[in-house]
Amino acid sequence: MNSAMSERPVQIVMIEDDEGHARLIEKNIRRAGVTNTIMPFASGSDAISFLFGADGTGAANKGKPLLVLLDLNLPDMTGIEILSRIKSNDHLRPIPVVVLTTTDDAAEIQRCYDLGCNVYITKPVNYENFANAIRQLGLFFSVIQVPVSE
Amino acid sequence: MMQAAANGKPLVRFQPFLLGLGFLLLIAISTGTVWLVNRAAADAARLAEARLVQNKLSNLLLNVRRAESSQRGYLFTNNAAYLDDFHHAEPDARRLIAELQQLSKSNSRRRATITRLSTLVDAKFAELSHTIMLNGAGKREEARREVIGGKGREVMTSLRKLIYQAIADEAELAALRIGQSRRTNNLLLVVSLIGAALIVLIGAISIVLVQRNTRQREAARAELAVTNANLERIVAFRTADLTEANEEIQRFAYIVSHDLRSPLVNIMGFTSELEALRKDIIEQVKSLSTELARVKTQSVEADGSEGAAEEVAIDQLGHDFDEAIRFIKSSTTGMDRLINAVLKLSREGRRQFAPQVLDMDRLIAGVLQTVAHRAAEQGATLDAANLPPVESDRLAIEQIFANLIDNALKYGRAEEPLQIEITGRATASHVIYNVRDTGRGIDPKDHQRVFELFRRSGPQDRQGEGIGLAHVRALLRRLGGTIALSSELGKGSTFTVTLPRGWPADNRGPHE
After folding, report:
1. Residue A18's closest chain B neighbor by CA?
2. Which of B46, B104, B135, B216 could bridge to B111 as Cys pair (CB 3.0-4.6 Å)?
3. Is this complex scored with an ipTM above 0.85?
4. Considering only CA atoms, which of A55, A122, A115 is closest in space to residue B343?
């Protein structure tokens, strides 16, 4: 779709344990016209082992054009923990993280921003709002410049 | 301990009785002593009187003798100088008799003696005067014969005997008085000793009783202290239990509401997906049925009415579909509102309070500022003045009053302009604020119900979930305060908020 995004299209890493939510997010992203690859992970540990690679240093994904869609409520660990690990890793820090969750607790939102989350989106039950938010996220993807290297 | 207390009871009741008895004895002994002392004094006076009478009797005899010897001297010497004593002795004797008569008023025997004595003295002095007169007249021989005649001597002898007898009688009386006085004194001593002994005894018993009482009281106090300590421990345990249970409920509410939202997102999302699919499905069905109709027409004779019926059936299908979707959507929206309310309450329940002294006039003015526009649109008047300050959590207090004022604004009456008035006063330990409105009022049967979660009163013609007052009550409970309602349907309502003036040290905050 977007020529500005160079030859190396951004891959979307979606960490979401609820299958329904994952499907809805994907549908809406597609509806917004975003065609990038989406890699779904249903648990935190799967996502961590992908992001940090076999050696656990994250070097494998250094400079890769990735974008993380992160749910905060996961069965095996909290999204907050994943967020802090990504943002405290030298190789993975530049990856944009979009937190998507049902919580609209102001304290929790603040905590995510403090840890370095780039966008925080509350999953509203009102579907129109939700779809709208995802579509805006799509627009956001189309303008975001994922750094190719440090 | 209980047994000792039971034993102690009659003793305690016995004590005032004992004390009263002691006082009665003391009064009796004092009265007795006073009586005895008086009697002793009377005895002494009578003894002195007897002695005085003896003395005067002797004196009388002496004076009569003095007169006689003076007469004898005169007769013997014929010298008038010897008569001096006689002239003195007679009035002295008369005076002594008068005095003795005075002392005999209460004693008849003595009176009789003195009367006889008086007669004899008169006779003696008559005889003496007669002889002196005879001698003075020169009838010396006649006077001498009269003296020798012995008549004067006879009178003198009876007089002497009578006086000696009277003196002896008085001595006897005195001895009697002395004996009586001694007995009285002995009695006085005995009574005094008994009294002293009794007082000492009662004192000793009282001391024993008081000591026993004190010991029992000490024991009771010690037991009470132990019980109190136990109670405090029990209260502490219970409080800890309650706090834990409360926290558990808060966590539970949070988790449940949080986890309930996830499936709700799915239900809502896929309902919308279905809605989007609906158009496609109906189109598909329509085109298929048209196709079918065309095929049918080709095989059989054309039947226009059948195709139209087919069309109506499909529209009906679409209509039913829309209705189902609409119900699902309104239900999920409603459920989301409820979950949000629970989430909000649970979040408020976990919030840490920051107590500070609040200038309530300024705080309420701030709250009123935020609703001023709405109030102006409704033509409502807002009043608040002279509110006492309180030490509490600013945000919580703001939320409480914002809720109450919002409610008052929300439930006005069409026929009358709304007045909202916030007043306050302070007592020694609490501050009391009233939020009064002239709105539609609340039915008395709903006075408790309005404070319950998701419950509302009156005609349901205003937006709301029924969490405002529940939230207010939960907040006040955590702040250590209370809320009360008085209201009359169609007249207005007054919500009374009572808060402790100072921040209670053991406030029910989240113990995290």
Report:
1. B262
2. B104
3. no
4. A122
Q: What is the mean pLDDT of chain B?
A: 85
pLDDT exceeds cutoff 60 at A105: yes
* A15-27 confidence digits (pLDDT tens): 998 888 888 888 8
Q: Answer for the pair A35, A61: CB distance below 8 angstroms, yes or no.
A: no
Enter the tokens of residue B120. Answer: 């004899």
Q: Do B258 and A73 touch (CB under 8 A)?
A: yes
| CB-CB under 8 Å, A105 with B265 | no
Say which of B262, B332, B333 has its CB closest to residue A18: B262
Q: What's the pLDDT at A6?
A: 45
B56, exposed or middle or buried, with CB in 10 Å at 0-12, 13-18, 19+? buried
| Long-range Cβ contacts of B54-57 (<8 Å, 24+ apart) | B54/B167, B54/B170, B54/B171, B54/B174, B56/B96, B56/B99, B56/B100, B56/B103, B57/B100, B57/B163, B57/B166, B57/B167, B57/B170
**Is residue A7 included in any domain, yes or no?**
no
Q: How near does any CA of chain B get to the CA of A45, in Å? A: 21
Is residue B512 scored above 70 in pLDDT?
Answer: no
What gap in Å lies between CA B104 and CA B101, rounded to an integer? 5
CA A128 to chain centre: 21
* Alpha-carbon torsion, ordered B262, B263, B268, B271, to 10 deg: 150
CATH architecture for segment(s) B354-500? 2-Layer Sandwich (3.30)
Q: Out of B258, B261, B266, whose CB is closest to A20?
A: B266
> How many angstroms away from the CA of B329 is the closest CA of chain A?
9
Contact A103 B258 (CB under 8 A): yes
CA distance B198 to B317: 116
Q: Where are the domains of chain B?
A: 2-219, 251-348, 354-500
How many Cβ pairs closer than 8 A exist between chain A and B?
Answer: 49
Q: What average pLDDT score do residues B311-318 get?
A: 79
What was the pLDDT predicted at B95?
92
Confidence of residue B155 (pLDDT cuts 50, 70, 90): confident
Domain region containing A61: 17-142
A82 inside domain? yes
Where on the phi/psi map is residue A33: left (φ > 0), alpha (ψ -120 to 50), or beta? Answer: left
* CATH superfamily membership of B2-219: Aspartate receptor, ligand-binding domain (1.20.120.30)
At residue B221, the pLDDT reads 94
Residue A122 belongs to a domain: yes
**Domain count across chain A:** 1
Considering only the beta carbons, identify the residue of A18, A103, A127 that sits closest to B268: A127
Distance CA A27, CA B270 (A): 11
What is d(CA B438, CA B180) in angstroms, rounded to the nearest whole number?
101
Q: Report whether pLDDT(A149) > 60.
A: no
Residue A1 lies in a domain: no
Closest to B452 in 3D by CA, of B431, B485, B481, B474: B474
Instruction: Kindly determine whether residue B265 and residue A27, on different chains, have CB atoms separated by under 8 Å.
Output: no
pLDDT band of residue B471 (cuts 50, 70, 90) is confident
Q: What is the CATH number of the domain that holds A130?
A: 3.40.50.2300
Nearest to B269 among A24, A103, A105 (CB): A24
DSSP string computed for B385-439: --PPPEEEEHHHHHHHHHHHHHHHHHT--TTS--EEEEEEEE-SSEEEEEEEE-S
| pLDDT value of position B13 | 66
Q: What is the DSSP letter of B482?
A: E
